[in-house]
Specification:
Layout: E1 9-11, E2 15-21, E3 27-32, E4 49-50, E5 53-54, E6 66-81, E7 87-91, H1 119-128, E8 132-135, E9 144-146, E10 162-163, E11 171-172, E12 175-177, H2 178-191, E13 194-199, E14 206-208, E15 211-216, H3 223-235, E16 241-244, H4 260-277, E17 286-292, H5 297-307, E18 316-320, E19 325-326, H6 335-340, H7 342-364, E20 371-377, E21 380-381, H8 394-407, E22 412-415, E23 426-427, E24 432-433, H9 435-446, E25 447-461, H10 471-475, E26 477-484, H11 486-491, E27 500-506, E28 511-520, E29 523-524, E30 531-536, E31 552-553, E32 556-557
Parallel strand pairs: 3-30, 6-28, 7-8, 7-22, 8-13, 9-12, 13-16, 16-17, 17-18, 18-20, 19-21, 20-22
Antiparallel strand pairs: 1-28, 2-3, 2-27, 4-5, 6-25, 10-11, 14-15, 23-24, 25-26, 26-27, 28-29, 30-31, 31-32
Helix pairs in contact: 3-4, 4-5, 5-7, 7-8, 8-9
Amino acid sequence: RFNARYKELVVIVGSLAMLSVAGIVGGLAILNPSLTGFPLVSELGKPFVFQGEECPESPICPLPKKLAISSLNVGNRVVGVTNDNFICVTMDWWPKEKCDYGHCPWHNASMLNLHLDHKLIQSAVRNLSPVVLRLGGSLTDHIVYKVPTLSGHPPPPCTDIIVNKSDPLGFSGGCLTMERWDELNHFCGHLGCSIVFDLNLAGGFDQKPSDAWWRGGHRWRHQNVKAFLQYTRAKQYPILGFELGNEVDINHGVGARVPDKLMVKAFTHLSETLKELWPNKETRPLLIGPDSSVFDMEWYLEFALQMGSKLKDIDVFTYHIYSLGPGSPFLNPNMTDHMLNATKLSTLHVTTNNAAKFVETLRNGGHKDFQLWCGEAGGAYNSGRNLYTNSFISGFWFLDQLGTMAQQRHQSYCRQTLIGGYYGLINITTMHVNPDYYTALLWRRLMGRKVLDVSLNGTHYKHMSIDDTPSYVSNNLRVYAHCTHRWFLENHKYAKRGSITLAFINLSTHVKHKIDAFAIGGEAMGDGPRAEYMLSAPGKKDTHSLYSHHVKLNGRILRVINDEIPALPPNW
């Protein structure tokens, strides 16, 4: 919270914040989970040693409340530039029969049968736009496109997705009709989203009867993919990009594993097809990949080496990440700790930094300036977890991941999913939006493309020296800085060019942080109007409020009324 003269900032315990300031206008969003009596026991009843201090064996960790004081400096250096549509959301193929750990949270959220005319879905996408809609997922390499070839050959057999326990993913079949493809394109054309579509790679290779994962053969059977691309070109759909295959590399493939040489052949063939159908480079869809389930530096370098002179045909490198681990409460009992533990959240920095170094290595080697995207991230894999990836507590890892990716020179970030599973931004059961939707929407409206260098300095407990203050105190307050998004500048009369936006995350359960000095480029920050967005969990003393499906904005619960996303007015 800021004092009346806007000279200092107090970030209350367990909060997340976005702040646009500078003497200068800005906006602040603080996610306040009301951590009074926050339960610090694992889901299996084992007490934590949390944030450097031991918690007793009780449902509550009664650590004394403390105040830490820091100064903040925003540098003049731009450390990264994102796409304007940095926020990307996904639609998946999973049918209602998809179940994980005894729960079946997909219902009719598959892109094959989702009710695209639903008013809430349209309102959610319209408010996020310009947003990338990534159409893909684990069953990508099962999908057949029901389209005849231009030479008149009929489409291959096209069957619905059915349960098949002998398949590595538990399903077989999958059919995308051109009628449904038309509907998906009209959906985005109407709402202002851009489509990235993941094409079937592994399905074009032979499968060993003795090894359900292995794919091989001498060539990629691409006729069905090419017919689908020819249909798309004839319809003049403005596709942003095409991916090829979903998590099918030889080392880390989930549903199939394609040898490197065969994958390179397929990417090369797809590149030639895109050039043939879209000869104008300005309107040609991006070639995106390889969508591995993890970023393995050694494998990515080998893939780039084998692409040889054709490497320049790839426009975007992507990888997937589920940093919270499996959604199972038995395999992953301490998910609360994963979401709030600064050390564990910081492990993401290793992956993002390596990915950024990979692209930089290619650039320094004389190749073009490739884009780098996080192509899929939903926190916990296998559909997420109820009361975690769809509740208020999810905002901590999510906002931190958005900030980290942008800071580490990623141009786009695709959240799994728009709807479906327990990690959806829209709850498929209640048809209301989950708290992370508002985090994504505030990011879209406040955080501009230019990412700035920012640092906290001199963090110490009140009445204690810096040397005597534990290091974890400063680690639990995270901050990210961007130039303020033009949406904010264009939609608020007090907004001024030159504003910056700061995103704060206070992971501590008992330490609130006061920022008593702000500087930009080493100079003290002046006075000026500021827009404040205070997001908090419902309930002042409700120890379970972190796990609520609802969220407050400036003390008012946000409610979807008549299937419309509510307005998000700031406090000035």
